[in-house]
Amino acid sequence: GRDSLRIYDAMVSCGTKPDYITFIGLLFACSHAGLMEDGHIYFQQMNKVYGIKPGPEHYACMIDLFGRSGKLDKARDLLEKMDVEPDATVWKALLAACRVHGNLELGERAATNLFQLEPKNAMPYVMLSNMYSTAHKWDEVAKVRKLMKSKGIVKEPGCSWIEINGTVHTFISEDRGHPRVAEIYSKLDGVITRIKEAGYVPDMIFSLHDMDREGKEAGLAYHSEKLAVAFGLLASSPGMPIRIFKNLRVCGDCHSAMKYISRVMNRHIILRDSNCFHHFKGGECSCGDYW
User: Fold this and answer.
1) Count of alpha carbons within 13 Å of 115, Cβ hemisphere only?
2) Are strands 277-281 and 269-272 parallel, antiparallel or unpaired?
3) Cα–Cα distance for residue pair 58/48, rounded to 1 Å
């Protein structure tokens, strides 16, 4: 993100004027790096300095930036002041922020608008269902799932994959289909024990089922990306980077666990989820926990 800002400054210094697309990239960079003050300044400069009227993409970046930073009141205020009609991208950014920060009321509003704009998209249904799960509103969870079923909407199953010696190995949550399943689970159990000793605490907010703590913790332990990293630790040479891909966003608990694993196991872990690259090294992530 900060590299993008430096390139932008160099571009302007050379006399090249930014355009509509330039500001999408700039504000997107600010949102992914948590640069709220910078993003706000650039957003104001668009019209005041360069006469560029913000479009839905720019508003979506700003709402995403405020949302990631936990400033949902600012996100709501900007939404109300938009000069253009909010599109699906705007509502998705708001819904994602509400999911992270637990604003159920605003999340319901965002999801309802997405139901109308993209009636066949599973994302808002899944996000809203997850929010109800976190709030322990199991009756509402059942209603959302029933609504999805009635509309024929199917959630894309989460999976992670890793390539070792030219062969791709794919995992789903609690997967038992790999030929080395016993080794993988044994390795992962050992890794979880070690990172707990280092301070890792499973985040139950990402366990979306109505069960006791032990059951929730077990469900979190065997997410697809954790199984993939366990296999990577088993099958790759010591010290080699472990590269994992995931078709959905990494959950907050797995993101936290990966930071601990990178430090405790002394491995560079690259996780490419549906949103961005995460480089875990020495207990830190390149995204700065904004993703």
Assistant:
1) 14
2) antiparallel
3) 15
